[in-house]
Amino acid sequence: MDDQHAYQALKSRDSRFDGWFFAGVTSTGVYCRPSCPAVMPRREHVCFFPTAAAAQAAGFRACKRCRPDAAPGDADSQPGTAGTISLPLPYRPPLDLAALLRFLAVRAIPGVEEYTDGAFRPDVFMPTDLGVRHALTRLGRPADPTAAAAAAQRWRPWRSYALQHLWGVLDDQGAGSASPPLIP
């Protein structure tokens, strides 16, 4: 790909070109992916490199917005995407785990979280979720939300894990196949 086409791809911010080339901005000393959301540099301030290593060898540093030093599509390459939450929580050591658990226990949402036996755990089950209802049907269980909620009571305090298993049933199997009932 020549520089003219590379600059057009850079202007389009098309993520399909990520990994094909890297753009170094001479006015800032930063190199970016083609899909970087940063302000578009003027053409005379841009040079192109085939790899991130080549851009670094030329003295450019990685952009902090598009993270060109991470693999394309990697959760680290695009902060806040792919279901990730980045929330740095400062604390001063030593961490008092017992005090933290007491703090969480007092604020636990009834029916959703619980603090028992020195452990804090979520306990969520969504009987009206369409995926849960389909999974229960595949397992030969009643898919009616009322019956499902009643059956899930015996899974306490591990209903969140049962919920994950039920969603996994849908991922693991195609339509029409039966699964062994792994949840009693």
Verbal overview:
The protein is of the alpha+beta class and 184 residues long. It has a domain of 60 residues: DNA Methylphosphotriester Repair Domain (3-Layer(aba) Sandwich). The chain contains six helices and six strands, in the order αβββαβαββααα. Helix 4 crosses helix 6. It is elongated, with a radius of gyration of 25 Å. It starts with a helix and ends in a 12-residue tail after the last helix. The C terminus is likely disordered.
Short key terms for the protein model shown above:
184 residues; single chain; elongated; two-stranded antiparallel ribbon; alpha+beta; four-stranded mixed beta sheet; DNA Methylphosphotriester Repair Domain; 31% helix; 6 helices; disordered C terminus
> Any idea of the CATH topology of one domain?
DNA Methylphosphotriester Repair Domain
Number of strands: 6
Give me the number of helical elements: 6
Largest sheet: 4 strands, mixed
Shape, per Cα inertia axes: elongated
Structural class: alpha+beta
Q: What level of helicity do the residues show?
A: 25-40%
Any guess at the CATH architecture of one domain? 3-Layer(aba) Sandwich
Radius of gyration: 25 Å
CATH class of one domain: Alpha Beta
The ordered H/E elements are HEEEHEHEEHHH
Strand percentage, roughly? 5-15%
Which helices and strands appear, and what pairs or packs with what?
Blueprint: H1 3-12, E1 22-25, E2 30-32, E3 46-49, H2 52-57, E4 61-62, H3 97-106, E5 113-116, E6 119-122, H4 130-138, H5 145-152, H6 159-172
Parallel strand pairs: 2-4
Antiparallel strand pairs: 1-2, 1-3, 5-6
Helix pairs in contact: 4-6
